[in-house]
Amino acid sequence: MSESSKDAGMIQVLAERFEKQRLPRVLSIKEKVDKGGVLDEFDIEFLEQVFEDANTIKPLLDRHPEWQPLAARMVHLYKDITETALKNEGSAQ
Length: 93
Fold this sequence. Notes:
Elements: H1 3-34, H2 41-63, H3 68-92
Helix pairs in contact: 1-2, 1-3
């Protein structure tokens, strides 16, 4: 199997996981923090896993720059969530 076909398979799996699992969960977390909520243990574990996965797929993104804008938007969304959650934590204390 060529590198290109391996990459295509990996991209398909990642896109499905993103659409069905990651995006709905991250949008739910964003809604929660936008309403003044804070991250719970499960939210933090989820975000940590996402960041670990992002580091793992970086070589794939380097080989396929057409996916980099989507990845950048997601990183920005995660950054926005964590910043808002930290602000909410400060307000809750």
